[in-house]
Specification:
Elements lengths: L1 H17 L2 E5 L3 E4 L8 E5 L4 E7 L5 E6 L2 E6 L3 E5 L2 E4 L16 H8 L9 H11 L10 H97 L83
Antiparallel strand pairs: 1-4, 1-7, 2-3, 4-5, 5-6, 7-8
Length: 323
């Protein structure tokens, strides 16, 4: 029997997660572990906080909501429900809003969300409590302060929705007019784009031509500069070569021509031993007269010449001085 209840509760709770609708809490209230003020407090929800409404009990007095990471029950008098793109006070629109109806099975609900809570061990006690107080969970009561806040929020949301609808219709008309104006503008923009593309291509071609001309002129200048540099380098190399000097002439050079010597008379071979080369030279014209040789040795030699203070060339016996 218990397993059957758990499966039934699981089947009932699965679709409610998919049908959850956004909601707003009007004033600060408590998130309870069951549909009633007597159940344990799970969490505290501040006023204006957003919650997800998974459904309400039959009669719409209590609703199953999730806030942050917690799951529990909140009285519908503190809730606003999202209806037709704006929030309305839930108790005032229960007849217009198709709020999902969900049951409350304490055993399966607590097993799913409160297994670690301290009151989970007493789920039998709380199950009997729910059985005895179930009739009170279907009675809806209103908190005046919460109702005034919820109704004011509903009115403001309706006014804002109406203004947004008028604005939306005006925006539709403006959009149609802008569409009619946008068509010729699109054609003009397309033509301007084509002209821009053509200009870009022409500018690119002109830039490429300028770049090629610049490269060619730069290549010519570089070639000329390289040629001038090579010429300067060759001239510097020629200037740097050492020159051959006269005193550094190679030894294998041709021998210099000997100066011509004056004619020397050959010695008279008929008068004995050869004479000195210097004695054989002709006597100068202004020579002193020949002196008689002392000792009666005979006349002097015809080729004899005075020696500047030295002894006569001929000696005793009429012979020449031997060198």
């Amino acid at each position: 029997m218990r397993l059957k209840s758990v499966l039934l509760a699981a089947l009932l709770l699965v679709p409610t997660a998919a049908l959850a609708a956004p909601g707003i809490v009007t004033v600060s209230t408590g998130l309870r572990a069951g549909p009633g003020t007597g159940f344990p407090l799970v969490d505290r929800i501040p006023g204006g906080a957003r919650v997800n409404i998974h459904g309400c009990l039959r009669g719409n007095a209590w609703c199953d909501v999730s806030f942050s990471d917690d799951r529990g029950w909140v009285s519908s008098q503190y809730l606003e429900y999202l209806y037709r793109n704006h929030y309305v006070y839930l108790p005032d629109y229960v007849d217009e809003i198709d709020v999902p109806v969900v049951p409350f099975v304490l055993t399966s609900y607590w097993s799913s969300y409160y297994a670690g809570r301290p009151w989970y061990r007493r789920h039998a006690y709380w199950n009997s409590y729910w059985t005895s107080h179930q009739r009170f969970a279907t009675r809806m009561t209103l908190d005046p302060r919460a109702a005034s806040i919820g109704r004011a929020a509903t009115r403001d949301a309706a006014v804002a929705l109406e203004r947004s609808g008028v604005r939306a219709r005006g925006n539709v008309a403006i959009t149609g007019r802008e569409t009619a104006v946008a068509r010729p503008n699109a054609a003009i923009a397309k033509r301007n784009a084509a002209v821009t593309i053509d200009r870009t291509r022409a500018a690119r071609s002109e830039r490429i031509a300028h770049e090629r001309a610049a490269v060619q002129s730069r290549s010519a200048r570089e070639a000329q500069a390289r040629m001038m540099h090579d010429r300067g380098a060759s001239r510097a190399a020629v200037r740097a070569q050492p020159m051959t000097r006269a005193h550094e002439a190679p030894r294998a050079a041709a021998p210099a021509a000997r100066p011509a010597t004056p004619h020397v008379a050959k010695p008279n071979v008929s008068h004995g031993s050869p004479t000195n080369a210097r004695a054989q030279m002709p006597a100068p014209r202004a020579a002193a007269p020949a002196m008689s040789h002392p000792g009666g040795g005979g006349a002097p030699h015809i080729n004899a010449a005075p020696r500047g203070g030295n002894a006569p060339a001929g000696g005793p016996g009429g012979g020449h001085q031997k060198h």
